[in-house]
């Protein structure tokens, strides 16, 4: 598919100035703006196309590359190739272009939902199987009441930072070697506070955490994600809060590992028990169960106990408890044990130390 020329999209000359390009883009963006053309797919694609053209032509370095190599010169550029995924992306990137233009600014008025936050929660092995209600500590920052978020003590003056003239960024070097850096004097804030607020040490916000109750359903696995509504970041302009997306981590169990509905357990027994047979007591999810070990059992043999695994959280299926037998050899023998084993070796015709 051949892509349209960026200059053609914006309807400007190849020698157009930065200001011309910005003006042309604003006009197109206004005309094809999705709020003004609801449900018009053609307008939306024009809107995205214009944003892509503007993204390249508004950046002097990328514009030069485009002038020399055309669309091929763009393939390595970040974010290009597929264009913008959504209209929101475009506002995220170029929102400032729209501000101060006919008072048109999407972000400033519309209520917006807050961002989701990603959290993780460790739960017990049994809680993943049977379900549980547990609590999650959610850390969040709240605006400091004392200074209303400014970070300044009530009667303290706030002045524009003289090092960066309020930009929060300073430019060092010149020409091709220009670099923008966060202003060290104001730490990028752009203003200086004469005396910081005592309540928040000048941060403007206070750490707070609260405990949220979470219902973990039965049958969840490692990595299951639970959505906890309204526990994300606060919304803007009266919009609802985002959600917390909680990824579950399951703590290892002392006795079991889990594979779907089956539980796996390693049971140790002496080589003497393995040779003669015995009954072991093995742990289950709720208690213990007897396990009949036949004579002549080899190290690593596996015995499955039906019905002692995990019950499916909806339905009647129950997994197995799969026991692997680990035969052990004694490392410390008393004299009697040593004599008995020597007698056994002699009787069996085995050569021993
Ligand atoms: Zn500064
Ligand atoms: Zn404060």
Q: Can you describe this structure?
A:
The chain is of the alpha+beta class and 353 residues long. Among the domains are: 6-109, Helix Hairpins (Orthogonal Bundle), CATH 1.10.287.110; 257-328, HSP40/DNAj peptide-binding domain (Sandwich). The protein has nine helices and 15 strands. The strands form six sheets. A four-stranded mixed sheet has the order 10-11-15-14. The protein has a three-stranded mixed sheet with strand order 1-9-8. Strands 2-7 form a two-stranded antiparallel ribbon. The longest helix has 17 residues, at 41-57. The protein is elongated. The termini are far apart. One zinc ion (ZN) binds next to loops. Residues 144, 146-147, 151, 197, 199-200, 204 line the site of one zinc ion (ZN).
Which structural class do the helices and strands define?
A: alpha+beta
Describe the largest sheet: 4 strands, mixed
What amount of the residues lies in strands?
A: 25-35%
Shape: elongated
Low-pLDDT runs: 76-82, 100-107
Main β-sheet, spatial strand arrangement: 10-11-15-14
The total of helices stands at 9
The first-to-last residue Cα distance is 82 Å
Task: Indicate the percent of residues in helices.
Answer: 25-40%
CATH architecture of the domain at 6-109: Orthogonal Bundle
> How is the CATH topology of the domain at 6-109 named?
Helix Hairpins
How would you state the average pLDDT, rounded? 85
